[in-house]
Amino acid sequence: MLTEATIEKMFRTLMNDPNRSDENFDKAEELLEDELRAESPLRHRLTVELEELRSAAAKS
């Protein structure tokens, strides 16, 4: 099992990729779903951030 710090670092790496694609968003979403409990505050925060980034990318 990964620590929350490791999960957040992996998430940031995916989201900071200059060539970010839909695949990066999907991997980040899978990471959150697979590694964090549904009630985790970190999962909630990163899921909201992921949705905002995905929406912003779609508008670009």
Automatic annotation (TrEMBL):
Domain of life: Bacteria
Protein name: UvrB/uvrC motif protein
